[in-house]
Amino acid sequence: MGSTSETSRRDLIKRSVALGVFTVPTMSLLASCASGGDSGGGDKVEKGTKSAKNPLAVNESAPLDVVIFDGGFGEKYARDAEALYVAAYPKTKGKIKHASTQKIQSTLQPRFNGGNPPDLVDNSGAEQMDFSTLVGKDQLTDLTPLLDAPSVDDPKKKVRDTLRPGVVEMGQFGGSETLVLYYAYTVYGVWYSKTNLQKLDAEYPETWDDMLALCAKAKKKGVAGWTYPGKYPYYVPFSLYPFIAKIGGPEVLRRIDNLEPGAWKDPAVRAAFEAYYELYKKGYVLKGSPGLDHLQSQKAWAEGKALFIPNGSWVEFESANQIKKAGNFDLAVGAPSSLSSSDKMPFGTLWASGGEPFIVPKQANNPEGGMELLRIMLSEKSSKNFTKQVSSLTSLDGGTEGLSLPPGLTSAQQALEKAGKNVLNPRLQDWYVALQKEKIGVGCIGEMMAGRMTPGEAINKIQKYADETRKDSSIKKYKR
After folding, report:
1. pLDDT higher than threshold 60 for residue 19
2. Mapped to the 3 state alphabet, what secondary structure does the chain carry?
3. pLDDT given for residue 14 in this prediction
4. Any idea what the Cα angle at residue 154 is, between residues 151 and 156, rounded to 5°?
5. Which coarse location class applies to the principal site listed for this UniProt protein (predicted)?
6. d(CA 132, CA 36)
7. Around 354, how many Cα atoms within 13 Å sit in the side-chain half-sphere?
């Protein structure tokens, strides 16, 4: 994600949104990646002296090893933060090893196996390492010292007190330890051009009946209602999952996340799946979408071939060139339309959560340095730099004062304000990556949206996959 968005959130992400070639590693491969144990491989640096300016006791002359996912957010923001790290610790000049890749898992597998992983990793994208495996193998550093350290901007505040709601909890896996820090903050939903809707004398449809009517109107003009990345159909849940919760209430997603028996058989799931399937049946999905990747679908959408696309707020940066060519695009994001007056949650309910997950491997040679770089990244200066560069919010609560935000990010801020307390954070894509992306996304939702599977068939198959995951003793389970 952003990463995605990818997607992220990419990965999903999460982008826990996902970008790059879709090659979700098998569990055995991931287990191999995270099986370093205590074999060693590098020399741990000695801690430095703790002080007000160095609250994490960073060794002020030790090398730092950083690997960044080169997806929708690029890598410059991380390099800029590294420059601030060197400014704070001048003796590290020339000692920061920076690498970027879209193939996180395959690139880092040998290093985890050898017990010599980097000090900080942006674990995102289609080749994201499976968090449940990393956690189960005890491969991640507890980031509590970082969260309890004073913030760069206000020493009277702990870092944890400067973060957006839910960010700390997202990095926890059934315990009090925080093992992942989600740096970006992504607003997911249905993205569109206000200008293209105005050409049809329309505004964003707040009801599903209005959505279908607008799609029918667009079809007569030779424009598709929707498109999506059919090669990576796990983007569809960015709007589908909050749609499910809007219809049936947040407890439906909670049961799904918890792998409860029969959770996918909830009437709200069936209603949401049938609504999306209707887009296919009525010809409101751009032809060829099942064969498109994320960039191709975004290009077609930005060119006005389709009105709507499920995505994350990284899309503004990732599609910037195409949007610029379109002229007055006026990018915006919409929350799921209301299916009926009996929906359990109000219009405006949406999915927003941390994205771009950063980890400090437990066997890192310089874990204090990795955490210190994260502390610097969570300063207002670094946060604003990230937002200006990639048109995305960070997990720092605020950090946009004085910035002139682009249309999409402005819309995302407004969407968050409208949602208020009705902000959802499904965990399936964080806890069970292979289940969410490969089995549910590609194997079921993708097949349904392509018309090769009915909603009922998709739901039955997803429930089967969820049940298999729940019964698999080799997969660590989580609950919320």
Report:
1. no
2. CCCCCCCCCCCCCCCCCCCCCCCCCCHHHHHHHCCCCCCCCCCCCCCCCCCCCCCCCCCCCCCEEEEEECCCCCCHHHHHHHHHHHHHCHHHCCCEEEEEECCHHHHHHHHHHCCCCCCEEECCCCCCCCHHHHHHCCCECCCHHHHHCECCCCCCCEHHHHECCCHHHHCECCCCCECCEEEEEEEEEEEEEHHHHHCCCCCCCCEHHHHHHHHHHHHHCCCEEECCCCCCHHHCHHHHHHHHHHHHCHHHHHHHHCCCCCHHHCHHHHHHHHHHHHHHHCCCECCCHHHCCHHHHHHHHHCCCEEEEEEECCHHHHCHHHHHHHCCCCEEEECCCECCCCCCCCCCCEEEEEEEEEECECCCCCHHHHHHHHHHHCCHHHHHHHHHHHCCEECECCCCCCCCCCHHHHHHHHHHHHHCCCEECCCHHHHCHHHHHHHHHHHHHHHHHCCCCCHHHHHHHHHHHHHHHHHCCCCCCCCC
3. 36
4. 90
5. other
6. 15
7. 25
Tell me the CA distances in angstroms from 188 to 340, 428, 434, 442, one per residue in order. 21, 15, 20, 19
Please give the structure tokens belonging to residue 216: 């029918």
pLDDT band with cut points at 50, 70 and 90 for residue 368 = very high
Joined together, the tokens standing for residue 354 give 């941390």
- Is the pTM for the entire model greater than 0.70? yes
- Name the token pair of 57: 């006791």
Distance CA 455, CA 67 (A): 40
Total residues belonging to the chain: 480
pLDDT exceeds cutoff 50 at 338: yes
The first and second tokens of residue 179, run together, are 């093992």
Phi/psi for 451 (5° steps) reads 80, 10
Rg of the Cα atoms in the chain: 22
Q: Which amino acid is at 422?
A: N
Is pLDDT of 410 > 80? yes
Q: How far apart are CA 189 and CA 273, in angstroms?
A: 16
Closest residue by Cα to residue 31 from 123, 171, 138: 138
Contact in structure between 348 and 246 (CB atoms under 8 Å): no
The residue whose two tokens read 């060519």 is 325
Which amino acid type is present at position 281?
K
Closest among 187, 234, 184, 163 to 354, alpha carbons compared: 184
Q: Which two tokens stand for residue 379?
A: 């300063």
